[in-house]
Amino acid sequence: MKEIYFYTPTKIYFERGSILKYLPLVKNYGKKVLIVSGKNFIYKSGLFEKIKNIFEKEKIDFSIFSNVKPEPDIENVEEGVEFCIKENCDIIVAIGGGSALDVGKCIALRVKNNGNLKNYFGEANLKNEPLPIIAIPTTCGTGSEVTRYAVIIDKNENTKKTIASEKIMPILTLLDPDVLDYLPPKLTGATGMDAFCHSAESYLATTADYMSKLFAIESLKLLSENLKKAIEGDKEAKEKIFLASTLAGYAINKTGTIIVHGIGYSLTIKYGTHHGTANALFLPYVLEFMKENGYVEEIKEMEKTIGNTSELKNFISKIGLPVKLREIGAEERDIEELVELSIKGCERAMKRMKFVLNKESFLKIITSAF
Ligand SMILES: [Fe+2]
Prior knowledge:
- By secondary structure, the chain is of the alpha/beta class.
- The chain is 50% helix and 13% strand.
- It folds into two domains: 11-179, Rossmann fold (3-Layer(aba) Sandwich), CATH 3.40.50; 184-369, Dehydroquinate synthase-like - alpha domain (Dehydroquinate synthase-like, alpha domain).
- It is built from 14 helices and nine strands.
- Strand 7 and strand 8 form a beta hairpin.
- The protein starts with 10 loop residues before the first strand and ends with a helix.
- Fe (ii) ion binds next to helix 6.
């Protein structure tokens, strides 16, 4: 049997009301909290008020950096680092989707390790332990709450970069399904499909093992059965996709993602397409391509859970997401640029594939998605 590796330092509470019940635990990790979040959701949802009340009641000192951009870059992180140092915070509570969680991780890392964030791209060699990270996800896609990854845009190189280290895994994650009440159906669909891609890609990665496949398949099952119902407002279905997203996080934590994410990045960079929407769009075409190129058995096995690629396109459409590049306003003349961006985006992912894709392969996948 293939070797297995599984590690997690993250204490998890998955229950309604877990924020109220367990957030006071932050006291165990330091003296002053830095809340890291985006600009809008935390205020509009009432989450900030709720958290502020908990902290005031528990006499926990805190500051808030609510300036995380939807697609955060190095400069955005460095701004947070400066603020964290100025405010003298020693615990990070990151609240939001993948962007907020990843910026939270990067701030925690950088406050304790000198230089620019750039120095830590790839497998990060960290001299010092980052600040303790507490994650409160408010979407159902990122998985970042249990992973050793943070993804940040490098504007100079016009690509997304990953920082990987077990030291940036959260020590505590509060999964409170109540937060999903404020997540709009469209974002529920897009982030849910991001989790779907995490699991599908993880399952097919050469780095997959028995454990990661367990997480991936269970997550795909929960998402296939519940994503549409969740978008329609079914509370129990929402809970299940919230869980599925974390399970997908465990899966990619071992394996990383493969080329769906790598190609999806091109749409986010070129058109600002939502990360989950971009991945969902390419997933069926990547699976079709892989099935023709050495992945027949694995994909057949996965199709038992998610259906074949035409059923998958149907599923994605029903969720309200695009399945053709034209639908997001892409033009034929953009294809060349998308191919170039995809090649760049897939550099690392290619190491987890059975073969290296050449330019023609990317062209084939992107043209079929067009
Ligand atoms: Fe993702």
